[in-house]
Amino acid sequence: MKDFILKRMASIILPFICIYGFYVILHGHVSPGGSFAGGIIVGLSFIAYSTIYGIEKGRKKLPEKVLVAAESYGTLWYGIMGLVGIIKGVPFLANKLAGVDLGVPGTLNSGGLISFIGFGVGIRVASTMVTLFFTMMEEE
Amino acid sequence: MISAISTNLPVFIIIAPLFVAFVLPTLAKRKRLVENLVLSVEVLMLLGICYLASIVLFRKDIPIIYQMGGWPAPWGIELKVGSLGTFFLLTIAIVSLPVALFARGNLTHEVGGKERIARFYVLYLLLVGALAGMALTNDLFNVYVLVEVATLSCCGLVSARNHPRAAKATFTYLILATLGSCLVMGGIGFIYIITGHLNMEFASRELSIIWQNNPRVVWMAFSFMLVGFGVKSALFPLHVWLPDAHSVAPSPASAILSGLAVKGYIICLLKVLYNVFGQTLMQAYSVHKILVLVGMVAIIAGSISALTQKELKRRLAFSTVAQVGYIFLGFGLLNTRGLAGALFYLASHAVIKSTLFLSAAAMQTATGKKEIKDLSGIGRKMPITAAAFTVSSLGLTGIPLFSGFVGKWNLLQGSMESGSILPISVIIAGSVLCGAYLFPVIRIAYFETAPEKDWKDPNLPQKLALILLSAVIVVLGVVPGPFLELANRAAAELLVLR
Question: Domain residues of chain B, as ranges?
Answer without folding.
Answer: 1-283, 286-498
